Amino acid sequence: xxxxxxxxxxxxxxxxxxxxxxxxxxxxxxxxxxxxxxxxxxxxxxxxxxxxxxxxxxxxxxxxxxxxxxxxxxxxxxxxxxxxxxxxxxxxxxxxxxxxxxxxxxxxxxxxxxxxxxxxxxxxxxxxxxxxxxxxxxxxxxxxxxxxxxxxxxxxxxxxxxxxxxxxxxxxxxxxxxxxxxxxxxxxxxxxxxxxxxxxxxxxxxxxxxxxxxxxxxxxxxxxxxxxxxxxxxxxxxxxxxxxxxxxxxxxxxxxxxxxxxxxxxxxxxxxxxxxxxxxxxxxxxxxxxxxxxxxxxxxxxxxxxxxxxxxxxxxxxxxxxxxxxxxxxxxxxxxxxxxxxxxxxxxxxxxxxxxxxxxxxxxxxxxxxxxxxxxxxxxxxxxxxxxxxxxxxxxxxxxxxxxxxxxxxxxxxxxxxxxxxxxxxxxxxxxxxxxxxxxxxxxxxxxxxxxxxxxxxxxxxxxxxxxxxxxxxxxxxxxxxxxxxxxxxxxxxxxxxxxxxxxxxxxxxxxxxxxxxxx
Length: 520
Ligand SMILES: Nc1nc2c(ncn2[C@@H]2O[C@H](COP(=O)(O)OP(=O)(O)OP(=O)(O)O)[C@@H](O)[C@H]2O)c(=O)[nH]1
Fold this sequence. Notes:
Elements: H1 4-19, H2 25-41, H3 46-59, H4 71-87, E1 102-107, H5 114-127, E2 132-137, H6 144-154, E3 159-160, H7 168-181, E4 186-191, H8 198-212, E5 216-222, H9 228-239, E6 242-248, H10 258-266, E7 270-274, E8 282-284, H11 287-294, H12 300-310, H13 315-325, E9 327-329, H14 330-342, H15 346-350, H16 365-386, E10 392-395, H17 401-408, H18 423-433, H19 437-455, H20 469-474, H21 477-483, H22 486-492, H23 494-504, H24 508-514
Parallel strand pairs: 1-4, 1-5, 2-3, 2-4, 5-6, 6-7
Antiparallel strand pairs: 7-8, 9-10
This protein binds guanosine-5'-triphosphate (GTP).
InterPro entries: AAA+_ATPase, P-loop_NTPase, Signal_recog_part_SRP54_M_sf, Signal_recog_particl_SRP54_hlx, Signal_recog_particle_SRP54_M, SRP/SRP_N, SRP54, SRP54_euk
Keywords: Cytoplasm, Endoplasmic reticulum, GTP-binding, Hydrolase, Nucleotide-binding, Ribonucleoprotein, RNA-binding, Signal recognition particle
Subunit structure: Component of a signal recognition particle (SRP) complex that consists of a 7SL RNA molecule of 300 nucleotides and six protein subunits: SRP72, SRP68, SRP54, SRP19, SRP14 and SRP9.
């Protein structure tokens, strides 16, 4: 994932500092130099990096800190805050209100992903009960209207545009008027991304903006543009009142530091990120959880939200009921595998867990893990005929997705040969699924390990959507150590490392803040 390397480098710099016995000027400088180098390599603008370094040095004056102060904590907090500051211009963007018509104009260079992002933005709001509409005011690029029309049709969103009209201002005004009459509450205007001359493009943006009077102008940028981001964002800002940024292609291999520069240039927050070509690959952007993930501190609230997002509402009470009965069946495992596959890029989910930056997840493992789940599901499909999906190998109580993920990533406990059922039944399952007997045995091993791990998760309940208090009450190192899979605990540095991590984050409340939580 984008910025993963940056996160990895910063985490390492912090870790090295934590390993030092005494935190003196040299240790602090080494740590800051390492972070500076990482930021510059990620294409973050030089001035921003220099300012960050100066600010941290101002906050962390080692001479002034009395002996009793936890210097590590203060330094880490300062770095965390400065990174957040870089991404947070300090004022929120305009937020459209449902049932009150808002006009949102999208600007950005051709190829930035503007048209795709317009549809994603519309689709996102449509799912939340809005009535969005799309207007294509790009008359420069042949095919622009067709592309928007195609996207809009797929998402069942009304659209407006013209093959004949060459005046973008006229189309924009007509489209906005029409959709206002039709009571649409989110009217999205897509604009050109290229002109014969750059000056003409910016003049056109100014005119469209003047004529449609948008409530919000969103600047769309490709995360891979590097150092060019600052100038590009600033150029748009000088022509129109950019109020928010959306960064696209965060799923690629770009360095991504340009995103930070765009925030500085426009003094506007990033509100969403694009993480793929598909309509659903679009995420709300929150600074604190993002930086938290970047530094390998996890984003538990995002993780929980993701779970609530993918476990269908109607399945949630039934699942919880079954769980409280303490019965873990193959059917439950099957359903949860299905949900995990829906969770989207598994890497992304993984990076929300504390102790992991996404860099720690080796490339290629993602596909392997997904293939493994699919393989197990095929075998379980063949069990349906055997009536085995209600099979209960272990009694268990409590549930935890961290455990499930750990199993999928092969980080569970020692393998033991499960004598769960006789060989002839297993042979039948293998034949039915067109797989080897050894693979069926492997699946049962996974099942057994899963049940065993989950049985240890008793007590950590997934809180209701938006309610993090239950989780926060449960959060102490002792509990976390039981909840985290052994491999993950090892990554953090064992019980000591976990206690350290939690101490460094300060109180539970602070920690939930770091994890993007707190009751919302
Ligand atoms: N991987 C990935 N591809 C994306 C993302 N967003 C857009 N794209 C792709 O980027 C390419 C360009 O996107 P468009 O939406 O056509 O770009 P545009 O900026 O609207 O271009 P103009 O309409 O010419 O101004 C398309 O192939 C999109 O599918 C993203 O978040 N991730």
